[in-house]
Amino acid sequence: MKKIISLAPGRTCLFGDHQDYLGLPVIACAINRKIQLTAVENGLQVFNIDKPDINQKRTISIHEDFGHIEQGDHLMHALKVLKRYNCVPNKGYDIEIKGDLPINAGTSSSSAVVVSWVNFLIEAFGIDTEVTPELISQLSYESEVLEQKAPGGKMDQYSIGLGNIVFIETGDDFSFEVINQPLQGIIIGESGIPKETVGLLGELREKAKLAIHAVKSKIEDFDIKTAKRKNLEEYLGHVPDHLKGYLYAAVVNHDITQRALSEFKKTEPDFQRIGRLMNEHHDILKNILKITVPRIDDMIEGALNAGAYGAKIVGSGGGGSIVALAPKGKELQVVEGIKEAGGINAYEVSVDTGARILEST
């Protein structure tokens, strides 16, 4: 019986939260916490799927007609998308999906499940196109976002699929650049408070787009992708008061991401400077977009007081996790600082190489 093991790491966002749904760039990195999908051919016409981490089991026929798929059923949506590419199941598997990624914590556990599933399906049943990390990422994005008309961008699927540290231009002129730069001292802190995703993302996206539209109605050639921080005062003069913060956040966070990219691309990056830029980014997420909660704020303060170069909330907000950058030798100190400030867990992670098939026999 054929056996396939498909692994997909989680991700953390270093720069660019609440930017990708505006087509603006992000800097993210895959982390060595993972989802692992183990599939063994069963001689049947079904996928028997076991998710022991959440005590959930289900069975999917390989002959599903996809008449009605519920929002959020990522496995079924992926099967529907891949069928269009002539990746069609012709045999069943017993499948276990588990991992050490925290759930609903801003480290993209759901996207990691999707990427591991897409990679498994292509390995098991083939596809009518060349298989690359970009293809796995794109099909995962189509399954999780486009097919379900969800509000997210491409950051999660591409950072997981490509691995490493990656700068992603997320707009219509989509592109990416893998940053082959070692980065030590990455600390993840879990708040234990479930993050908000669809509702919060949708609300902030719509308000930001309204603010951008207000400027475009007065400045015909205005483009958020080329907007300059030095011209903010002019832009804000065309925006209603209740939307000014959303435009400010979009322009300034874009500027911060570009400055961080310049630092990462240096032969010897100044990680203290990268930490300060993380702090700038977090300040906007906290005080302008207001996506933090008191425990997250306490954890950020705990990390910085323990010596972290910088720290910020990760993901959609309302809870979830933080990422901190610790100096060499102070990693454990920062971990303890986050826990003492109320984090339910904190740990050092390293940069992962991305989604991959570990075994196919």
TrEMBL record:
Q: Which residues form the Galactokinase N-terminal domain?
A: 4-35
Give residue ranges for domain GHMP kinase C-terminal: 266-341
Q: Which GO biological process entries does UniProt record here?
A: galactose metabolic process
Enumerate the transmembrane spans: none
Name the UniProt key words of this record, in alphabetical order.
ATP-binding, Carbohydrate metabolism, Galactose metabolism, Kinase, Nucleotide-binding, Transferase
Q: Which GO molecular function annotations are given, in alphabetical order?
A: ATP binding; galactokinase activity
Coiled-coil intervals, chain numbering: none
Q: Which SUPFAM superfamilies match?
A: GHMP Kinase, C-terminal domain, Ribosomal protein S5 domain 2-like
Query: Where do the GHMP kinase N-terminal domain residues begin and end?
Result: 76-163
Offer a single GO CC term for the protein: cytosol
Which protein family is named in the record?
A: Belongs to the GHMP kinase family. GalK subfamily.
Q: What is this protein called?
A: Galactokinase
Write down the species: Flagellimonas hadalis
The upper taxonomy is:
Bacteria, Pseudomonadati, Bacteroidota, Flavobacteriia, Flavobacteriales
